[in-house]
Amino acid sequence: MNEKVHVVNHPLVAHKLTILRDKNTSTKDFREIVSEIGMLLTYEATRDLPLTTREIETPICKMEAPILRGKKFAVVPILRAGLGLVDGVLRMVPSARVGHLGMYRDEETMVPVQYFCKMPRDIAERDVLIVDPMLATGGSADAAIQIMKGYGCANIKLMVLVAAPKGIQVVQERHPDVDIYCGAVDQGLNENSYIVPGLGDAGDRIFGTK
Fold first, then answer.
1. Other C-beta atoms lying within 10 Å of the C-beta of residue 201
2. Exposure check for the chain: N or C terminus, fewer CB within 10 A?
3. Which of 141, 181, 209 is nearest to 45 (CA)?
4. Of the residues 25, 29, 87, 105, which is catalytic?
5. pTM score, whole prediction
6. 27 to each of 6, 32, 44, 50, 195, how far by Cα in Å?
7. Does residue 201 have an active-site annotation?
8. Quick check: is 204 catalytic?
């Protein structure tokens, strides 16, 4: 696997993904676990956030203690399924701003169509974490990354629950500068471009519209 692809091989991630994959998991549990995995993946995706120090006083003594350097950070969910991951990210990085990028896949052409985009005014100055539960064909991720680069964003990462090899290949070929964080890499895609074994339509399962 390319050094830009980070598969979070952690027992908690694996266990929670199994619950998501189970077709009998309720909407409530599915939604909660997507958020929980979002927290765990964010922990890995933010490993390179820069630190500085400030003086504090513990109950014992004064010390120079590490704190985040205050570098600007934004999470950008691909609507609508990406919304399921936002809460987990914000619980780890509460100061993050949130952009929204609405896209849907044309069922005939399989090409992503943008229908909404709203970003913080200073998005070009921020490190951007694009989130979406699935990286299948790579079409939506590629389009989202292109849009964020169009805003002038220079440091972009992509975070997904489950990825297909084809989607990873597309993102790597078109955006070799973008790191991908995922909970698992699955076998591939079926004739409808759904990830196999996957976890179904994440948006429907998060919002109870299946």
1. 15
2. N
3. 181
4. 105
5. 0.91
6. 28, 9, 26, 37, 20
7. yes
8. yes
Average pLDDT over residues 120-149: 94
Catalytic residue among 97, 204, 205, 209: 204
Neighbours of 91 (CB within 10 A): 13
Catalytic residue among 48, 54, 58, 109: 109
- Calculate the CA dihedral of residues 96, 100, 105, 109 and round it to 10 degrees: -110
Q: CA–CA separation, 34 vs 29, rounded Å? A: 9
Q: With CA atoms as reference, report the closest residue to 127 among 150, 95, 153.
A: 153
Give me the pLDDT at residue 209, please. 86
Q: Does the pLDDT at position 106 exceed 90?
A: no
Orientation angle between helical segments 83-92 and 27-45, nearest 10 degrees:
50
Residue of 151, 143, 150, 148 lying closest to 167 (CA atoms): 143
Sign of the dihedral defined by the CA atoms of residues 163, 168, 169, 174, in that order: positive
Q: Is the pLDDT of residue 70 over 80?
A: no
Helical (H) or strand (E) element with 147? helix 139-150
Q: Where residue 1 falls among pLDDT bands split at 50, 70, 90?
A: low
Exactly one of 46, 201, 205, 209 is catalytic; name it. 201
Token pair 């205050």 in the structure block, residue: 70
**Of 193 and 89, more confident:** 89
